[in-house]
Amino acid sequence: FVTIVVFLYFRRQYTQVPNSKLIASVNPEYVPTVYVPDEWEVPRSLVKMSEEIGQGSFGMVYKGAMKSADGTHDLPCAVKTVNVMAADRDRIEFLNEASVMKAFNTHHVVKLMGVVSQGQPTLVIMELMGLGDLKSYLRSCRPDNADDENAAPPPDLKRTLRMAAEIADGMAYLSAKKYVHRDLAARNCMVASDLTVKIGDFGMTRDIYDKEYYRKGTKGLLPVRWMAPESLKDGVFTTQSDAWSYGVVLYEMATLASQPYQGLSNEQVLRYVIGGGIMERPDDCPDKLYSLMRLCWKHKPTVRPSFLEIVGILCHDVSHDFQSVSFYHSEAGVDLRVALS
Ligand code: ADP
């Protein structure tokens, strides 16, 4: 597997793929060839699109509004589109990727609101996350952006821990649903206008319902700097490897989205992490955050905390207002004394 990763790394040098990910060829056997419309289908006439938000990998994403089921009011939404020139195969892949979200209904995972698969362009309607992805949000809070009068102040420790608890809560829900994310990173978390953070991208999520783990090393994209040693070495992805990636997200929060393992090449990161290396405490990083990172970066996967335990640790450390109804954690009825013992 390491050989394949190194090969892919070198291939990347010549293909200039953005986003610090490595591209591997996709086995056509795994690409579904149909999309069957279901109860998520909404008539196109109910969806209005307004300004552009940004470019997605399949097409433009717009701000929009969708009529409520009773037709009485408009719900704000984000509308993902597929480029009209795209091949049918891409349209189907886009719809099938979005379909992963049909199985989830919890506060800290971005909600799917509907799908328009009939006619052109293909649309996927999602809960609107007004401040975009967490990585861009963190970068926009950097002091070097202070000249920009719209620049937000960096989240303080309390807010950072709250955001961390929200991400862990979304992940606890996914993990209870037996989903392994495989690509947890700040770029794949989304920030709402009120600063609530939710898990927001399922491009690489895989259902492992009746398997212990997902083991497929060479398919898709490999976000090396977020990957646990066992994922890098053996292609093993579990909820424990998601916990490792969560530790890297904490690092991103503590550094306003610095690149993890800055100064090391992807190949060096791979060797360093497989060899037992972890990142040092970032400058000015509070103890609470770094000690949680270190728990998530335990080399042995089974020693890492579960996401429910992480929410428990964060609730315990900060304040009781985390125990609000919108936390899956509180629905799960977890006894914190058990979680912390
Ligand atoms: P893709 O996963 O198709 O590549 P992205 O998730 O990268 O698309 O989204 C492209 C742009 O749209 C980004 O700027 C992202 O912040 C924005 N975006 C995606 N989903 C939402 C959403 N639910 N609410 C607000 N903005 C969104």
From TrEMBL:
The chain holds residues 417 to 757 of 812 of the full protein. It is found in: Membrane. Residues 47-323 form the Protein kinase domain. Belongs to the protein kinase superfamily. Tyr protein kinase family. Insulin receptor subfamily. ATP binds at residue 80. It comes from Nesidiocoris tenuis. This is Tyrosine-protein kinase receptor. It comes from the Eukaryota.
